[in-house]
Design brief:
The protein has 470 residues and is an alpha+beta fold. It contains 15 helices and 19 strands. The strands form four sheets. Strands 7, 8, 9, 11, 15, 16, 18 and 19 form an eight-stranded mixed sheet that branches. The chain has a seven-stranded mixed sheet with strand order 1-2-3-4-5-13-12, sandwiched between helices. The radius of gyration is 21 Å and the shape is globular.
Length: 470
């Protein structure tokens, strides 16, 4: 790969062939040591019709479906810009929700084991176990797809802060359940409030270090505090929607004469019927993902209240698999763009009008989950943030799940984590082994690169006390 180093944490993939823009990668050399395949995907994304500025990659970049995971690309609908399901991913609106307890880790310590034993059965996970909330029928499921967490609140689940501190106020506008197929509805009906499997988790954490006290205070965080981080998405419903839409767009591209170097980059013009239908179905899945995390948070609140008497207040909820129509300046001119963020987190700066009033002075909370046994980070957006105000979304895999499972057994990993004082409640031993810390990049190095590249700023570091694994 022809990479030109621009700065310590910025590299350029030079244009060649059908590329319409260059690639720009925010990372260190160490983080890019095994990124060859994903950098080729950065190059492929740069060929999409209507793409502007660059095909961007975040410090946690790794190989994905069509787009790299950690990829950001914006297209201009007025210039024939396209939307590509591969730029969102199969787990539509996969994201992170962080809650803060009115409890310290020292106060929790005597009952941590009992808390984890209670969270274990209260958090549905795996492929078939069901969810916290089963909608009455498909009509109620369609309300979830249309109104997201607003509908959950109307049904008595949660509190107003759960909307105020959630991206898009808890629901993406423009959702159309009519664009969601019957199989997707069937898969989604019994999974509302469930983790699924893979890298999804509910983690009890301690605020180990605060880097920016005023911003942390505005977010509701302080040293020693107990937090709960939830990482999951839209489950089988989102996966089915993505698969259905990719197949449709493979046919649609011919209609518009679009050619791409990888069929996994199937796309359609944003303003075409196929493009609009995808965005409407994607928004429905995003609303499902928000309700999924909303209901898991309610389950955690119930257990915390029963075991510790503590409250859990929402710090923020943000997705990292989404395409959104946003206004950004390109060459000094405001333009309406379709911004794909796949394994990348929106990071709005202080003063941005889309932030809730109580966060407008600080910038948007950015939630970066690490791995079991390491740490997670809370960041904030910064003025002049690059890549359409985007940053990393996590540590980024360096091993396949098969490779990870061969390197350590689930029981060995559990014993190792328990020896570190981390209570582990897995759904399966193999699933636990697939997610061992060595399967991922160093999350501290990822955050350092994002901050060094001017994408974000560190606010706090959180360390695990207990993990419920999908």
């Amino acid at each position: 790969m022809d990479l030109t180093q621009i700065d310590r944490y910025e590299f350029r993939v030079e244009r060649r062939g059908a590329m319409r823009v260059p690639g720009v990668v925010f990372a260190s050399r160490a983080l890019l040591s095994d990124a060859g395949q994903s950098l080729e995907q950065v190059r492929n994304v740069a060929t999409l019709p209507g793409i502007v500025e660059a095909s961007y990659a975040m410090p946690d970049v790794h190989w994905g479906y069509g787009f790299p995971i950690g990829g950001v690309a914006a297209t201009d609908p007025a210039q024939g810009g396209v939307v590509s399901p591969g730029g969102v991913g199969f787990d539509i609106s996969c994201g992170v929700r962080l809650l803060a307890a009115d409890l310290t880790a020292q106060e929790l310590a005597p009952v941590l084991g009992r808390l984890m034993d209670a969270l274990d059965p209260a958090v549905p996970r795996g492929m078939t176990r069901g969810g916290v909330w089963t909608p009455h029928d498909r009509d109620e499921l369609r309300r979830i797809l249309t109104d997201g967490s607003r509908h959950a609140l109307e049904r008595g689940h949660g509190e107003q802060r759960d909307l105020d501190r959630c991206e898009d106020g808890g629901a993406v506008d423009g959702a159309d359940p009519g664009q969601v197929g019957e199989r997707a509805l069937e898969r989604g009906l019994h999974q509302v409030g469930s983790l699924g499997s893979g890298n999804h988790f509910l983690e009890v954490q301690r605020v180990a270090e605060v880097y920016d006290a005023p911003v942390a205070t505005a977010f509701g965080l302080h040293p020693g505090q107990v937090c709960v981080m939830i990482h999951c998405g839209s489950r089988g419903l989102g996966h089915q929607i993505c698969g259905d839409q990719v197949r449709r767009m493979e046919q649609t591209m011919r209609q518009y004469g679009i050619e791409v170097p990888d069929r996994q980059l199937a796309c359609a013009p944003v303003d075409s019927p196929a493009g609009q239908d995808y965005l409407a179905a994607m928004a429905a899945a995003a609303n499902y993902g928000r309700v999924n995390r909303h209901m898991l948070a309610e389950a955690a609140r119930r257990v915390f209240a029963e075991v510790t008497g503590a409250r859990l207040d929402l710090v923020y909820d943000i997705s990292h698999n989404l395409a959104k129509l946003e206004e950004h300046e390109v060459d000094g001119v405001p333009r309406r763009l379709c911004v794909h963020r796949k394994g990348a987190t929106r990071a709005l700066p202080p003063g941005h009008p889309d932030l809730p009033p109580d966060l407008r002075a600080t910038g948007q909370p950015v939630l970066i989950p690490g791995t079991m046994g390491t740490a997670s980070y809370v960041l904030t957006g910064v003025q002049g943030g690059r890549a359409f105000h985007s940053t990393c979304h996590g540590a980024g895999r360096v091993q396949s799940r098969h490779q990870a499972a061969r390197s350590v057994s689930g029981r060995q990993l559990r014993d190792r984590l328990e020896a570190q004082g981390i209570a582990v409640r897995p759904s399966s031993w193999r699933g636990l082994a697939e997610e061992h810390p060595g399967a991922y990049k160093d999350v501290a190095a990822v955050v350092e690169a994002g901050e060094g590249a001017g994408l974000c700023r560190s606010v706090a570091r959180l360390v695990p006390l207990g993990v419920v694994k999908g």
